[in-house]
Specification:
Blueprint (H helix, E strand, L loop, with lengths): L1 E4 L5 H11 L3 E4 L3 E5 L12 E4 L2 H5 L15 E3 L2 H10 L4 E3 L4 H13 L9 E6 L6 H6 L5 E11 L5 H8 L3 E6 L2 H14 L2 H5 L2 E4 L2 H9 L4 E4 L5 H12 L1
Parallel strand pairs: 1-2, 1-9, 4-5, 4-7, 5-6, 7-8, 9-10, 10-11
Antiparallel strand pairs: 3-8
Helix pairs in contact: 7-9
Length: about 240
């Protein structure tokens, strides 16, 4: 029996390796495809800090950051995975919220209160084309100026890999891992198109957040589990509770 990982590549491969190290069999069925978007590095802009809510935003522009003054700015990352990507890209001062977008917003506000960040300096938000939350708007309501630069998009894949379709038909999938609402929606559409919706949604659906879980429940999934905190370790705990 295998755990189905719907996370886009290359992060899905990292998740698969971690699961195999725990003794799980793994099937990869990425439901979104990563695509870069043209990036303009405005070297003269007086930014005070950089905000990132996905490692993909940095992956998309890493090759263009060499020598960029952005690397000298503080970078606020939503979690440790994104923070690691920022350090790998060359950012020296990385602050991880170890949370979700709401926690990142509060971490930025706390930095202003602690006088380590000036509210008068614009913030550069490196983002994807489809935002699950209006973080710039929320910060704008608190007096910040936020400049959003889209660096990547995630394109939904309409079909399951043949191996995954066959595994569902043979009842060889034990549980499914979901990392975003968009990939969860793409998964639902793909299992419907493949004619395996009933068997797929009868399995435990382990979700990175409550918002993702809502997508699965609304689609009719009967067994939906949510990570206690927005990190992969907590997601694996939820998975182990579903499969023990």
């Amino acid at each position: 029996m295998a755990i189905l990982v719907t996370r886009p590549l290359p992060d899905g491969e990292t998740t698969a390796s971690a699961l195999r190290a725990k003794g799980f069999e793994v099937l990869l069925a990425p439901m979104l495809r990563f695509e870069q978007v043209a990036f303009h590095d405005d070297r003269d802009a007086p930014y005070g800090a950089v905000i990132v809510t996905s490692a993909n935003a940095l992956r998309a522009i890493e090759s263009k950051l060499q020598g960029s003054p952005l690397l000298k700015l503080p970078l606020f990352a939503v979690g440790e995975h994104t923070a690691e990507a920022a350090r790998a890209a060359g950012f020296a001062k990385v602050i991880s919220a170890d949370s979700d977008a709401a926690g990142l917003r509060e971490r930025i506000l706390a930095s202003v209160k602690a006088k380590t960040l000036k509210k008068t300096s614009p913030l550069l938000y490196l983002a994807g084309a489809d935002l699950a939350r209006d973080l710039p708007g929320e910060l704008g309501e608190r007096g910040f100026t936020v400049v959003t630069q889209t660096t990547y998009r995630m394109v939904a894949l309409p079909n399951l890999p043949a191996e995954t379709r066959e595994a569902f038909a043979a009842h060889e999938v034990e549980a499914v891992l979901h990392y975003s609402r968009r990939s969860a929606r793409a998964f639902i559409e793909a299992v419907r198109a493949a004619g395996v919706e009933i068997s797929a949604l009868s399995l435990p659906q382990c979700c990175f957040s409550a918002g993702i879980a809502t997508v699965l429940r609304d689609a009719g999934a009967a067994r939906v589990l949510v990570a206690a905190s927005p990190d992969e370790g907590a997601l694996f705990v939820a998975l182990e509770s579903a499969t023990c």
